[in-house]
Structure formats: structure tokens, C-alpha cells
Amino acid sequence: MPSEFTGKHVTVAGLGVSGVPAAKVLHGLGAGVTVVNDGDDERARTQAAELEALGVTVRLGDGDTLPEGTELIVTAPGWKPTKPLFTAAAEAGVPVWGDVELAWRLRGLDGRKPAPWLAVTGTNGKTTTVQMLASILKAAGLRTAAVGNIGVSLLDAVTGDTEYDVLAVELSSYQLHWAPSLRAHSAAVLNLAPDHLDWHGSMEAYAADKGRIYEGNRVACVYNVADRATEDLVRAADVEEGCRAVGFTLGTPGPSQLGVVEGLLVDRAFVEDRHKNAQELAEVADVNPPAPHNVANALAAAGLARAFGVPAAAVRDGLRAFTPDAHRIAHVADVDGVAYVDDSKATNTHATEASLAAYESIVWIAGGLAKGATFDELVTGAAKRLRGVVLIGADRALIREALARHAPEVPVVDLDRTDTGAMLQAVQEARRLARPGDTVLLAPACASMDMFTNYNQRGDAFAQAVRELGA
Question: What's the whole-model pTM score?
């Protein structure tokens, strides 16, 4: 039992996916644990009862007051740094960690050799990239798991019974903010676009938290050649001696890059004499789906795997074996020569820009909760690809106005309803606008909670509406 936690008074901020495992682990290590939580609903009370049965103290409905005697706070990643709890902690000199920081510090305390972390962050594409990476690592015969922000607790991976050779770790900007001592084997920042600025306070602060993933990297910092901001984060990072900057690009790669040549994914970073040689890794057709932004995800995953010494054949086999999660540029059906594609996961303009770029002629279904976004740049870039647009959701007027400014010739159907049945009408209107060879694309550029529980339900509604078309 590690002495640094035995008898220590630790406050866990927040229940849920991260808080409950953190409280259990700390209690098992001999800490005196108090959990504070803003909510006091049925789910919170159920979780509280489970923890109280173990001897953990739980305070519901008060997440702002610092419990007396607290020596350390372990917080859920989504709790804002401006919360009164953290202000009180700073005044009292109490450190604040996230569950990722706790997991990092607990590695190897059971006597096992700690598994290295291959870490991924970015505004979009994190989950897909980490899943691709895990598939490649498994194809190489390595014991691994996709963990972190993907929904699988890092604490469970670090303290559980399963031994791993390496972990594929998805990290959000929230998690990185609260993980000051994290030092990955290698890491990638896929892209940077404005997101969660209400939490971070500014784009500069958001980027700085993303950039923490590169701190202390041992082998490779993988960046996006097309996104200069990611390379800037590499330049600013304090890494171990010998750690390399490795770029990925959809174009022909230069030395120390991975890229695409005549339909092939190639490596000019982890080969002998990279100025003259390249290694074929896979075909673009091995990427599912082979949309440009997804090929970029595959290159980033390949870069991290190659940094860990994975052979080229495993990259190919892992990409072929990978199946993307639902609602990520997923082909639903072809009806009367028109393809219907569900990218409900495209909840911001950056993700939607990538989705729109994957098709030549599109009837676009968009709208929802804009979260403060603007759409002029998105519409300008996509205007030539748009056959028509169907708008749904609470903030659809923002997209309609951008279309009027930058694509006034594109037909627009504005559905003045926010009930869940609007999706069926949206698909029917899209069918009316579409011609054979077109793609009807659900890529909302907005959050879903005005009409649906989450983006999954929104995508399911779209798929059901498409199935009714073909019935």
C-alpha cells in the first residue's frame, strides 16, 4: 500500500464515470475519502449508496465547499477550474489532480512493469484514432486496450488484473488540464479548432492544455502537417532528449513524415535513411471509411504505432480489422441512386467541414444547438458541393443566414419544428432535393440536445427515417 495515500484525506469532486472508480481506488489504498457532487438526483443517490457501503463519505448537492482537512482533490475532468471548490483549494494550498493524473501516478505500484502510454488528443477524431491504434497494436500481437476519454476508465486499466504491453489513450483537453505530470511514450495532436472555450476561457488556453500531451514525450510527437498549430505545440514542448517530431499529411510525405502516395499510406519517418526510402504501410482502401479526414486519423494512428516499433504489416492488418463506431460518417443505405450517410457525431463546424469535404454533391441536413459557433467559413468552403440544405433544430437560423450570405443559390428547406419527428420530414425533404449520385449527409455542425438525448439518438432517428424511405 503506497504510503503517500495511506491515511491521507482526499476529496473526490464529482461522481459518474471517473469519480466512482477514483473513490474506490483511493479508499482501497487506505485514504480517507470524501466525495462531493453538485447533483442530488436518483443516479447520484444510487452511486452514493454504493460508496457509503464501502465507508466513503458522500456529500450530494454541494460541490463548491472544500471539506475540512482535505489534503488532495481528485476531480472529474469536466469540472471548471473556476469553481469555488478549486478557488478554496488554491487558497489552502491543496493540489488538484484529475483521474488521469491519479492513474499515471498509480502505474506500477502493484509491482508490475507499467505499460507505456500512446496518447491522442485533438478537437476531432480522437476516438476513431485511438480505436484504430488499438486495432493496429493488437494486430502486432501486443496486449493493449483503448482507454481514457473513450469511456473506459484509465484507473481500471492501471489497477485492474489485466497486464498490458501498451495502452492507447484518448485524452480530452479537460483531462490534460488536470494531469500535470503525465509523460507519454509518444503522443499525437490531430487538429486544433475552437471548442470548449467557455471552459478554458480562450483559444490560447485551450491549445495550451492540448499541448500538455507532448510534455516529456520519449520517442515521438506526432503532429498534423496541415494544421500548423499542432506543429507549434510540438516546438513549444519540453521533451526527452532524442524525441522526434513526426508529421502526417494527406500529401506526399517528406522525411520524418507519414503520408499518401498513389493510393498508399507510406512511412518516411521510421525507416532507415528516411531521406531516400519509404515503407508501404497499407492502401487507402484499407481505411474504413476512406474519407480524407479518416485517412488522416489512420496516418496518426500508424505514426504512434510505428513509434512503438510495430511492423508495417500490422498497420495494414489493424486498419483492415477496424470497424468505426456508429454515427461517424456511416453509410446507412442507397435509395434510388442516392447515398445516405450518418455523421451525427459531427457536432461542431470543424468535424462537419471534414465530413462535407468527403463528398462531391451533397444534400446537407444540419442544425441543432450551435454552442456559440458561427458558420460563415464552413458554408463558404462547402458551397460548391451543396445540392441543397435541410435545416432542423433550435439554432438553424444561424446556418440559414450564413447560407444566404455565401451560397444564396443553394435551395434551403427550413423546418420550423424541434420535435424528434422532424428528422423523418428532414429525410423526406432531402430525398426530394437529391439526384442520383448525390449524398444525403447528416452532419449537423451542432449539438443534439435541443431535440434528442444525444448524437446517438439523432443518428438512430436519421437511419430509421432512411429505412422507411426504402421500405
Answer: 0.87
